[in-house]
Amino acid sequence: MLCDLINERDAVLLFGGRNISIDTSGSFSVVVDKTPPEAGFYPPGTTVNEINEFISAHPEKKKLMMRVDTIVRKDTENNFIAQTIRDTWPELAKRLYFHVDLAGRLISNEDPELGNYLIKRASALFKGKPLKQTDEMWVELGEKHDLDVVIGPIETYEDKLFGAKGSWMCAVMLRAPKEETKTKSLVRMVQAVEATLPMKKKWMWRTKSSEEKEGERTAERKNPVEMHLEVVDMIYAGGRVRTPSVGMAHNLPNDPVVKEKKGSRNHLFANIIKEKMKVIIRPIGMKILHSSQQHLLSETGMMDHVMLHELSHSLGPVYSDISKPIPSFALPSLSSKQLTLQSQVPVREALTDCFSSIEECKADVVGQLFGWRVADGIVQDLDAEKVPVIDRDEAMEMSATHLASLFRSIRFGLKSAHAKGSLIQLNWLMENGAISLRVDGNEEEDENGNDAFIKSIRKNSNRFNRRKMRNGSSTSFDNLRLFIDFNRWKASLNDLASILLHIEGEGDKEAAKQLIDKYGSRLPDWVEFYLVQVDDVAIDLNIHFNLD
Q1: Which of 12, 27, 137, 519 could form a disulfide with 424 if both were Cys (CB 3.0 to 4.6 A apart)?
Q2: pLDDT tens track for 133-162
């Protein structure tokens, strides 16, 4: 009953509405999302400037306006107002409360803690209370329970105006403990890995020590927060979890205050990862990777990357250092033009609509560096055996499989944060020689390599007829494959990580826009070439859950 509600047709309103289709009219198939920037979270046609002007005039309303679980509407006087789900859809809110509360009471005999969480969550969602308390309760559930549930307005990808509003989702999961040894070892190395990242020490994420003064942040982690990495099987997905793509993992909660106080939980959906690897990622990899590296495509490599991607969401800055002019009335004897006030705001708030793309890219890049730091022995788990949990062979599998998965993400269209983040990586890797185009069967690098191939594709565009290729016709470029130089791969991603971490730490939205515009907004010819090659591979899974 808990699951059925979120999947009903009228519940589509809760996560902003969907207008998604697959466009097959071009040279390759791609998901098209026609949802407007305001989605269903703000009145139709609302702009960022309108909201900002209203908040400037009514600063006391900002907190409620920007809360993850409120919906912004206009009153009879055409002013913006923030409403809860009960205000906007009272009947739907009643049904939501009834089913989630009932689920909690039914399971309380077998699992009192989970039952109590669901009962409290139902009340908070229905009454429009801040969700921090129940988010904290969910983190505290930890790894002690075989069954787990995530429900509420959580992921903010659909809010293209501010990245503040959560789309409603429900995920029901069953624990799969087979990866426990590796996950615990990786979690133990998080702090050591973060210390190797190319960023300022003050951006290392941690809780505030009792020795610190209020507002002060020191370089060392004295009290690292708790972090959980859990392998589960998804037994039901509803709402944002399954649209437009069924996720492979999540890192929650998103609230930086809760993360800093209680830590985070990372769920890897083992059954989803396994199926996507078999049906989508491996077939893509076999079409784009050089034959000498196709053996590196593996389920283990995909699982490693997803694990480290989720852990890496918790690495790096949580707050941005924002410099703001000091108003002249505050210090009338000095020129305000020469003075700035340093303040800290959550990275999500500093980067607004750019946050999701930058953060997803950062998690991918830092996750790759994490795996290679372990494989190269730069960081070690002192509590484990001498053999690293990820060795060099496994790290190569992780990177090769991730490369194939980048093309999978791009096929969801460049309105998607994951697609933008993936395209940034592909363009960066190619520009820095970490991947190159080579004739299959030839493992020697051509000095003119990529440039010559790309120029040839452009020059012979009439021969590079994408529509003919989709219909099965061959071209003279069919034997081009991507080859990975793993040393350049590590070096170039380290440089990209530095840029991403500094964008987040400094809250530099302009730099974020420039990075996205240069590397994540347009498909280069060689990427289009491979998207055509993989056009017969499924874009995503159509999952059906047996709830009998």
Answers
A1: 519
A2: 999 999 999 878 899 999 999 988 888 899
DSSP conformation letters of 91-123: HHHHHHHHHHHHHHHHHTTT-HHHHHHHHHHHH
Residue 449 has pLDDT above 60, yes or no: no
CB-based contact 540:419 (threshold 8 Å): no
Within 237-354, where are the H helices? 256-262, 270-276, 282-288, 299-312, 347-351
244 vs 419: CA distance, rounded Å = 12
Q: CB neighbours of 457 closer than 8 A, spacing ≥ 6? A: 464, 477, 525, 526, 529
**To 10 degrees, the CA torsion angle through 231, 261, 323, 204?**
-50
Q: Mapping DSSP to helix (H, G, I), strand (E, B) and coil, where does residue 531 land?
A: helix
User: What would the mean pLDDT of 319-347 be, rounded to a whole number?
Assistant: 55
Cα end-to-end distance, the chain, whole Å? 12
What one-letter code names the amino acid at 171? A
What's the confidence (pLDDT) of residue 339?
Answer: 41
Pick from 141, 400, 372, 183: nearest CA to 270: 183
* R_g of the chain, CA atoms, integer Å: 24
DSSP string, 407-455: HHHHTT-TTSHHHHHHHHHHHHHHHTTSEEEEETT--SPPTTHHHHHHH
Interval 366-409: pLDDT, tens: 999 999 999 999 998 877 666 678 999 999 999 999 999 999 99
Whether residue 90 has a cis bond before it, omega within 30° of 0: no
* Contact in structure between 207 and 260 (CB atoms under 8 Å): yes
Does residue 502 sit within a domain? yes
Residue 180 lies inside a defined structural domain of this protein: yes
Residues spanned by the domain of 462: 2-35+129-209+222-316+355-533
8 A C-beta contact, residue 284 and residue 408 = yes
Give the C-alpha separation, 309 to 273, whole Å. 13
Question: 333 in a domain, yes or no?
Answer: no
The average confidence (pLDDT) of the chain is 82
Angle formed by the axes of helices 525-533 and 417-431, nearest 10°? 120
Q: What average pLDDT does the segment 450-474 reach? A: 49
Q: How many independent structural domains does the chain possess? A: 1
pLDDT for 241 equals 77
Give mean pLDDT, residues 305-322. 90
pTM of the model: 0.81
Nearest-angstrom CA–CA distance, 338 and 340: 7
Answer whether residue 90 is part of any domain. no
C-alpha 361/C-alpha 359 separation (Å) is: 5
> How confident is the model over 201-222, as pLDDT tens digits?
888 865 332 233 334 433 344 3
Q: What is the pLDDT of residue 325?
A: 47
